[in-house]
Description:
This protein is an alpha/beta fold. The protein contains 10 helices and 16 strands.
Amino acid sequence: MFPIVKKELLADRIYLMEVRAPRVAESCLPGQFVIVRIDEEGERIPLTICDYDAAKGTVTIVFQTVGASTRRMQDLEEGDSFRDFVGPLGCASEICEEKNLEETKKKSIVFIAGGVGTAPVYPQVKWLHAHGVECDVIMGARNKELLFYTEEMKAVAKNLYVTTDDGTYGFHGMGTDQLQALVDQGKTYDHCVAIGPMIMMKFVCLLTKKLGIHTIVSMNPIMVDGTGMCGACRLVVGDQVKFACVDGPEFDGHLVDFDQAMKRQQQYKTQEGRAMLKLQEGDTHHGGCGVCGGDK
């Protein structure tokens, strides 16, 4: 069992939980995720790692209440436990790997976080700050009530630009509007990391492609088993089939087929849709470990 040692309401329907999971905490890196399950009958819920502390043996997750499973999670309190807390899963962010540090220091980097995408952006910016790499961060939400981690992000970002769609706080507009405004003011970037809703990442990539800024996105489609075997997180990157849970979750945003991914995400939600996808995709419907035949 994995006990909850801290629970906090960050914003409207957005919760933080710090969970004691020593083996996960000592191994995880920015960009990776975990899959949690409340009990034996519970749904497997993929959640990006927001923070971790190897010394304390804890991992911090952030989630928004959107359905029955996250509603059940919302009801858990400090002292309650998760039945499963599996991770770290996925590949660590390449920009947060020490082997790439010298090259990373040469980059002018901007992060764009949309909504709950702030949670996975934070550990990357924190890691880079600790290793001497200063980055700008554009952090947005629909309104002021949905913003969280503003002070935490300010402490690790070179410059923090906060936006709201309705203008109730900070810059009035979306993250793409703020990025364009910064470029118009003379800011230059050669690397962008965008994490948030799929439609937001799509429009960030359309803008950064026009601006000539290399862009990485973190794909967070429906995930089920976290090993690539279920086919839930299949997507097309360039001319290749990839699986976000084992090949990602980060990919070159200018190569991701967002329209196909968004359409597939909706289709996968129904049993009939899943059956049709399996029929249409054939051998490429499932992924795998890349060793036992799953890399078709």
